[in-house]
Amino acid sequence: METALREFFAGQPEVMEWGVASLEKPLPNAANLQAWVGQGFHAGLPYMENRLEERSSPTLLFPWARNAVLFAMRQPAPFGSDTGDFRVASYALGEDYHLAARRILKAAQVHLTRALAPEEIRFEGFSDTWPVFERDLGAEAGLGWRGKNACLIHRRHGSGFLLAGFFTDLDLNVPATPAQDFCGGCTACLDACPTDALFEPGRLDASKCLSYWTIEAKGDIPADISEKSEAWIFGCDICQDVCPWNRKHKKDAPPDPAENRPRTALEWLSLLRRGGGFQSRFKNTPLLRAGRRSLLRNVLIALRHGRSEARAAEKIGDLSDLSDLLDALSREEDDPIVLRELRRTHEALASSYLSAKNPTP
Ligand code: B12
Ligand code: SF4
Ligand code: SF4
Fold this sequence. Notes:
Layout: H1 2-10, E1 15-22, H2 30-38, H3 46-49, H4 52-56, H5 58-61, E2 67-74, E3 87-88, H6 97-116, E4 123-126, H7 134-140, E5 145-146, E6 152-153, E7 161-168, H8 188-192, E8 198-200, E9 203-204, H9 210-216, H10 223-226, E10 232-234, H11 238-241, H12 244-249, H13 265-271, H14 278-281, H15 292-305, H16 308-313, H17 316-332, H18 336-357
Parallel strand pairs: 3-10
Antiparallel strand pairs: 1-2, 2-7, 4-7, 5-6, 8-9
The structure holds cobalamin and iron/sulfur cluster (SF4) (2 copies).
């Protein structure tokens, strides 16, 4: 059966690494998970509040499970890909990884069932679909060490990968080599995080993380966060982009697919208008998770605080086009949060328009 697994993964180009974690014992960080939620570092994410014991002991979820097979899927574009006026997390610059995971999991089940017939196997796949502590399971399966940026880092591939896996009742003899911690004295991620969300090595307060605010949060983004959001409109890669383990492996990353993505503020805002085509343009990509309104909110904030305003200020033509578009959006939107951001951004642009038109001598 180990051979069947090896054969299967050898034929999966999206999979960079795989490994097996035994489920005999609860995961070593079970207490930390409880403490993390207990102290509110989960930012009230409802799906993180429930079934904490199951997260760290998957056999409470599936009593028949003996092992978890974890795999790391390459993200579609390298860190630092040029995304124009605004920044989008590189994992989101292509197909939604949940779809890739589903495809690979389905194929794995078919392959193993055929290879091991007539023996019957039990199989349950996961990639954010069950309450599973995926990074810790990944660490147990030898896919990397838990970096000070909280991500799982592989010595050869860095952290530019997404996790998925399956539980099985198979008795697998694929020993995992626990990854050594190679962060050493480096603190680049802690120093670079603009909101101090990484408050101690490996410990993250989601209620300060731009990834939480730009993807998960539906409400108002507090001023102390939005002022530091730079140009990020979906997710944030800063603490991974600065990591030497990713810098080192950038050259091995796939090229940026750059498929017909909006690049300027005007293009983004037009796409995010009601009936502007957001749903069909981003079908099957992670950007749909944020939803049109939240993405519009993020673009409006980034327009004030990110780098695009500075660029636009050089071109008065662009600013008046933007202003027209903001007017049109204000007429058609009814969400109070979006309307508030529209007003704030409009005011900020009007003042940069005036100062660009009447530069101080
Ligand atoms: C909730 C969640 C988030 C939240 C919270 C992030 C977080 N660090 O927990 C938000 C929305 C902020 C988020 C952001 C991101 N996420 Co996310 N997220 C998850 C999810 C669903 C659960 C993670 C979880 O269990 N968190 C709970 C806490 C407790 O876990 P932890 O940080 O690992 O906690 C450790 C430390 O904090 C420490 N600790 C905690 N308390 C204490 C106390 C003491 C005393 C000590 C010593 C230690 C300690 O020990 C804990 C256990 O090891 C997983 C998918 C899954 N089901 O696992 C994806 C996942 C972790 N995310 C992923 C990704 C890609 C991201 C982003 C990179 C996306 C982006 N570019 O914007 C960012 C990265 C932010 C970061 N630096 O971690 C990938 C990670 C891939 C990888 N190579 O590591 C996962 C695995 C999704 C996937 N299937 O691939 N995410
Ligand atoms: S994803 Fe961004 S905001 Fe979140 S911890 Fe990393 S650097 Fe900080
Ligand atoms: S930036 Fe440095 S400290 Fe942070 S995860 Fe990478 S190696 Fe570790």
